[in-house]
Write a structure and sequence with these properties.
Structural class: mainly alpha
Order of helices and strands: HHHHHHHHHHHHH
Oligomer: single chain
Number of domains: 1
Number of helices: 13
Distance between the termini: 28 Å
Length: 346
């Protein structure tokens, strides 16, 4: 127990340096590029918490990132690297939208939401599990297969949204708004915050318990971290690849459901917005520990919400806000990504 606390403390302290350095990036950009540096700085730090609307939307964005990054971390812990999260989120949201739009009114409410969540889980799980299956049966690299499968199926989602599922009365390439009975309950109106935030935290706690408090989770971690030790103990490490990738994809698909039925109340082309890539960075920053994801996602969610607040309230440029987020993400994730890839090569 004492050793585990020491490991967590070391991981937290190790993450503080790159995260602190990443925090300097927005400060430098704001001071040098904003039209009104002092106002932009104040909005950047306080904007996400300045009203119920901003606060709720910040927490809602964290819920999406928390679920997606848990999926990425799960693949890492099983010895795999899921690069298809973006497509899995997108196709999961499209599958959920199709169910919510096509189910009869008699099934509206919890039944429709349950069916939509199941469809999203299935869509993402099949995509992720297929890459794990290819690695297990053919030796194909799951980085390549998950990325290519995602890139190949994203146009399918675009077709569904702009074709069969599109709202013919609207100008946006998106579906019609879901009725209130087909939406996740809101927690802080008028913001987009829904019960997805509570569900995401519960999933993180369940992931922590599974990985660190169960025998099956221990075997799963050993297969991913030290395959030779797993073999010595009579466990085939290859057995973790398919379930690891399938669960990772399923969580990404569930993120798409949360976005469709919670955040946006609809789907539109490109609604995933790079969330799958940010989730990989969050997982690496957290060292693939579920509980550490709470800290990493809080930082990244606040970083994005602060940039967006400065953009809306202080005339901050779109390009500058995106550049701030990209530079900070890269700087925060670089040490952890390099360490993971170096360990994988060894």
């Amino acid at each position: 127990m004492k050793r585990r606390k020491t490991i967590y403390r070391g991981m937290t302290l190790g993450a503080l340096i790159p995260l602190s350095a990443a925090l300097l990036i927005p400060v430098v950009f704001i001071l040098t590029m904003a039209e009104n540096p002092l106002k932009s700085m104040a909005v950047f730090f306080t904007g996400p918490w300045s009203s119920a609307w901003f606060f709720g939307n910040t927490l809602d964005g964290m819920a999406l990132l928390l679920t997606a990054s848990l999926g990425a971390a799960f693949a890492f812990r099983g010895g795999c690297f899921n690069l298809g999260g973006e497509g899995q989120i997108y196709l999961g949201g499209c599958a959920a939208a199709a169910i919510l739009l096509l189910t009869p009114e008699a099934l509206a409410g919890p039944a429709a939401l349950t069916l939509a969540a199941s469809a999203a889980l299935l869509a993402g799980g099949i995509m992720g599990g297929f890459s794990g299956l290819l690695r297990r049966t053919t030796g194909a690299n799951e980085l390549i297969t998950s990325f290519l499968l995602s890139a190949a199926l994203i146009p399918l989602g675009d077709y569904l949204i702009s074709g069969p599922l599109r709202n013919p009365q609207g100008n946006l390439l998106g579906t019609e708004k879901f009725s209130s009975s087909r939406l996740l309950p809101r927690l802080l109106p008028p913001s987009a915050l829904s019960v997805s935030f509570i569900l995401a935290v519960i999933l993180v706690l369940a992931g922590h318990i599974f990985l660190n408090r169960t025998a099956l989770g221990y075997r799963f971690r050993i297969c991913g971290a030290i395959p030779s030790l797993a073999l010595f103990g009579g466990i085939n490490p290859e057995k973790s690849w398919i379930p690891g990738m399938a669960v990772s994809g399923a969580l990404a698909g569930l993120t798409g459901f949360f976005a469709a039925a919670g955040t946006y109340g609809m789907t539109y082309q490109g609604f995933s917005g790079g969330l799958g890539w940010t989730a990989i960075a969050a997982a690496l920053i957290a060292g693939n520990e579920p509980l550490a994801l709470l800290q990493a996602v809080f930082f990244l969610g606040w970083l994005k919400a602060g940039s967006d607040s400065a953009l809306l309230q202080a005339g901050f440029g779109f390009e500058t806000a995106s550049l701030i987020q990209a530079a900070a993400l890269f700087l925060a994730a670089l040490p952890f990504g390099s360490r993971y890839l170096a360990g994988r090569r060894r």
